[in-house]
Model the fold of this input.
Amino acid sequence: MTQTYTIAVLAGDGIGPEITVQALRVLDLIEQKRDVKFNCIDAPFGASAYFSHGKSFPDVTKELCDSADAILKGPIGLSHEESEKIPVEERPERGALLPMRRRLNTYANFRPISLPAGMAHFSPLKKEVVGDGIDIMLIRELIGGLYFGGKESGKTDEGVRFVKETLEYDENQIRQILVVAFNESMKRKKVLHNIHKSNVLISSVLWNEVLEEVAKDYPEVTVIHMLVDAAATHLCLNPTQFDVMVMENMFGDILSDQGGGILGSLGLMPSACMGPDKAYYEPSHGSAPDIAGKNLANPYSMIGSVALMLDMSFGMESEAKTVWQAMQSVFESGFSTSDLSKGGEGIQLLSTTEFANKVMVALEALL
Ligand code: IPM
Ligand code: MG
Done:
């Protein structure tokens, strides 16, 4: 019997819809070539959902996410000026994205920072630093830490405004993300960089204690401890030393954007957000309102998110690899888009659609 998967498609804001359309073409093609059916259902999410439904995470979307086998989500958010038109609590980050992460319990965020040798020209780093390419899996804890701790604001008795924002974890939250990181290391090079700030934060002290306990179950994995500030430097100076990195939510937010920086663009950063029962897939970047609707954005991060979905939710590892290969071959043939490249020097700039057309041709030949 044909395997059928229901996918909730939350195209989001800005460039979201135009790159999502291209990513769905990949699923269509795989359906034609394999005995599988993807039942893709659109749902409103983000600022656009606020304007159409009065909520940035409407109930119909919640219900669809609850029943879907996987969720494909585009970027969300608007320009600063447009955001101001939405009440603070309904703005897409606070009103939709963070509640979704919590609701779906997607505590493990996989952010590949990956640049094969053939795409090394995208990196702002020197050739000798990129070497044979960058291939890091950054694992970010996604539903705890500084993002989700207690928050308070007010005025002191003297009338001075203050805020208090706390970094909270219990040992179980720490253990579950570390287990994910060790398991991922076992599948890769068995080297795990533990990123922390235990010289200042007691949350990192507990994190590292739990790590010592978990590490006992993974004697083959070499753990390298690195302070988060040092890790930021090492990512620039010697990114190829890293294989799997694991860290707290806020650290992961910052270092994963730096990951996009060393690749040359956040547009090269898809991601997977995994929980025990649910997973959703999204680009790590924003909705790029400045180029939205112009058919300029590269669909790599959205198509890459589909590749992660095929691999991690549907067990279609070889098809996922083929999707990566198809996208890389298009870049390696000298094609790009204006959000990623300036053009010239043998690089031909294409529109979103044209770029995706090339990916589809390459994929069709490889599948
Ligand atoms: C990310 C984004 C989000 C985050 C924003 C949009 C709330 O920057 O996924 O990295 O901070 O987690
Ligand atoms: Mg971020």
User: Anything to note?
Assistant: The CA atoms of residues 148 and 156 lie 24 Å apart.
